[in-house]
């Protein structure tokens, strides 16, 4: 039989009725991974032996009638920015090429407790800095829908491994759009949760006040199941939300959307850089929601144009600090200073310089320089403090918008997946990929990307739904309704 | 350079930055034990090592201890405090930044009253600018022996909670700096906030020093120098004295003032007894402070501050005054007792109450008890003789049942042998002699010395002095005063 590696619900059902073992699932998944590595190359590490062992363990416990976790036997790929015990965690950087963390990220240990099978680590932009997975030290990942194109980034590997049929689920992280944009480019569903909803412990920091872990899957229902497993308060993360809300995200089936107020971000839909195919897809989605009973009205986020500049001050500032620890002294790559450099600077500074010069790629260095500059005496007020103020105003825009609407609908990206190499030498052009996504990170609100259309040449198009703090269940339920009425999330790339 | 005996032609202006390690069970941002020493790099975890993916979580006990210290220093405690990253590269700082507090310190605007070294009966108030919490760094150990240039790093100390207490430049001499440090250490140890052991690094001092000189062109100030590497109160004193003289000579030679030169950092060499330049200019000191995004600001409700204030108890200065008035002891004695810390104060008070004689209690503690502690290299907490026992012993002395010399012998024996005072007293045959036994003894001696009766009748009262000595030889427990009284009674009745 063919193994439905694109549906968690199906894999759970087939195991429960004894038609499929976890081992069979994992073997099929590994087979698929190895086949796609040459073309798509979503993985930086494949944990074959551990995955098979874990699958056998699940099968054994099932045979003995033991209670199993909610993701028993489900293979899952984890973005290589999340620490995994027993596997390398590289951030796709030369700097951490040989780093083996002595602990699991909290979200990873939650996966293991749920009996999910961590099958490998996925490629990403170096230290999650990028929108195309082209800044990885290990080489690019390609879009399964068109291997001349990017899968997006920075969670490009996590999106591509689902889209290429290797695994039904993956974990990504999103600092300025890094789950939602690749989800949109790869035709899958991805959620950036409320800041603090999923623990950041073991997530190697890019920009601490913006980073969030989130689920990636074909359907909103599968993403919801994964979200239920990974979310929750963690006393190891001081920014973790201690909410009284239950962490059950499995959508209560909505029959229709009557009473739901959907706010249309008109400025985004009319944005000059938005490609017509995406605009069409968003309008189509709005019509589907209207038909399901939702009330549609325009809303404005008057300061959204400041999102990208605000983001590209705050994120590099935090990054410049977070990445200070990679100095060659304690862990990670150590460069050797040349004799001349040592003479000039002394052995210590020479080692720092070589380690950081050789261990980091261009984009990472660019952001460290930006952040270091913006935090320096004389520039701090003009850049960092001003960006914090802008961030507060952007957050207030959302607060106002959520008085008028329950959710906001708009595009995820200005364009469908672009060609590899197209933007990699133009940082500003690359940064503008985050135009519609950074707002949710700056405001700390949840935001969902789900498939809502196709271009004429067969590239998927994403729709973005943003909600107020802790409204993930609502976002997932709405997407679930959309997915009962459409089949965009059921389209598959030609293998 | 010797100018010590002359009144120096300048004022020395000193501000101190004191780091004290807080006595918490665990470190500031992780759950590693906060202990001194240990094999290098054994008291560490992912968080204090700064491993990728690790996150800091504040230890509320350290916040509470800092508030406690701040209240004792008369500081105001803000309703909100936050954490900032101080960024610099150094191998003993594994994250590349230190979590500290920049613009919202947990304590600000306080003061410390200390003894004026020129007149110990007067107090001088030194203003405290601020006190903030931060994590300690690790230690670099440079092995330059036998031509090696090896450096080793011990990260055990990383993440130990530190309170940096910054004074205003209110101190005017090395002696004042020492007095300030003595009082600060007393306060911190008294409140169990820190051990304040300079040798172990749980108290570290940096001194900012410059001079105000009256010159022909009006008053000038010399460039500010920060002195580091001082490892005892004595070296702080010596370093400041040295530096003041050095700055004066430098000013005479170069005429350079605070306007001509930025702050420099100099180290103190305890062996060569001089300061040496460590950092020429502060050009590297852009620490790029910014709020730590991993740590939310800490709210400190008023009620919480007040509840900590209630646990402060009596501070050393108030305690000194109370001991003086309540037990009628000398200021010097009160000072010595309070400086020994809360356990000694409690010990003294128990002895004073049990003996009913504060002065005798303080005399005994200052002389006998403290000498015994010194000989045994012990502390009052482990002193074998309970305070009540000592008090009861002293009560017998006061009431005349026991003379001071015998009490001292019993005290010494009890400590030496570990016996209780009663056992010591028994084994030494010390017991009160009752009145009839005493009379019998005196009668026996009078009979043996008929000449004394004659002399007495002839008006030579002093003749009985020799008999008192004889009585004590026969029975060492006989109290001389009682013997005298008994003798007089017997002689008068004959």
List keywords for this structure.
heterodimer, A: 495 residues, alpha/beta, Amidase signature (AS) enzymes, 11-stranded mixed sheet, 17 helices, 11 strands, 13% strand, globular, B: 494 residues, alpha+beta, Arc Repressor Mutant, subunit A, 16 strands, elongated
Topology (SSEs and partners):
The complex is a heterodimer of chains A (495) and B (494).
Chain A: H1 8-16, H2 22-37, E1 43-46, H3 48-63, E2 75-79, H4 106-113, E3 117-122, H5 156-163, E4 169-174, H6 180-186, E5 189-192, E6 212-217, H7 220-230, E7 261-265, H8 266-269, H9 276-291, E8 295-299, H10 307-322, H11 339-345, H12 347-359, H13 362-374, H14 381-404, E9 407-411, H15 427-431, H16 438-443, E10 447-454, E11 460-467, H17 472-485
Chain B: E1 10-21, H1 60-72, E2 80-81, E3 84-87, E4 97-100, E5 107-116, E6 119-135, E7 139-143, E8 150-154, E9 161-167, H2 174-190, E10 203-215, E11 218-221, E12 225-230, H3 233-254, E13 264-269, E14 274-279, E15 290-291, E16 298-299, H4 302-311, H5 316-327, H6 331-339, H7 342-355, H8 358-376, H9 387-398, H10 404-417, H11 421-427, H12 435-448, H13 450-457, H14 464-474, H15 480-492
Helix pairs in contact in B: 2-3, 5-6, 6-8, 7-8, 7-9, 10-11, 12-14, 12-15, 14-15
Describe the structure concisely for a colleague.
With 495 residues, chain A is an alpha/beta fold. Chain A has 17 helices and eleven strands.
